[in-house]
Amino acid sequence: MSFSANARFCGERSVLQIAGELDVSTASRVAALVTEALRSGSTHLVVDVAGVTFMDCAALRVLLRARQASLARGGQLSLAAVPRSVRAVLALTGTQELIGPEPTAGVDSTARAHATTATAMHHARPRTRGCRYTA
Q: pTM of the entire structure?
């Protein structure tokens, strides 16, 4: 299975987009992007997992550590466009309250997730001085 991870670093907000299998063999690439985002000055991390087809405990550990690092800097970590497979891992481990998408009453979860991602991408657009991209 192919894996891809890229990021948009823009001031206090970074958006990480991940696709494919997020497991012990790929979690270090996500950890490296998180580290780069935090070093660039970002405190708010949005992780778009719409394309994630599988997630294991190694990947969950990376996300939980990223959340801790973000909170320590006065920010937050949120997931966007969370597929059913990732939701299942979060529910089984009891971590959906920590890093799951924030519930919004009366709004379809898929629509909310895409809106969250779109909003995060809007805030990280290149017209803001100092934005960088990775692929």
A: 0.77
